[in-house]
Amino acid sequence: MCMQFGVLSRLTWCEYSWDIIEPVTYFIGYGTLISMFAYYIITRQEYVYPEARDRQFLLSLYAQARKMGVDLNRHNELKDTIARLHLQLTRLHDPLDLNLPKPQL
Predict the structure, then answer these.
(1) Helix axes 72-93, 49-68, angle to 10 degrees
(2) Which among 18, 80, 92, 99 is least buried, having the fewest CB atoms inside 10 angstroms?
């Protein structure tokens, strides 16, 4: 949206006049609105740039993984297991974080 505003403002004030650019901005604006609505209809998600970017990244990641024969579900399970074991090792390494009572000498 910012890039669209920058290009249209440059065309308006530097290259052409508002009389020429006004219909262009009208059609570009409504084209953007229609494409965002189409995105919402297809994905049932609001068009927010970070979410749309993440969705496209995940779609391409799963497509590339499928093409290479990588099982991403198994990969995610292994990563979760590693994270859980790392947390347990951290807790075992520092018993003071568990707030255990001091041993009697």
Answers:
(1) 110
(2) 99
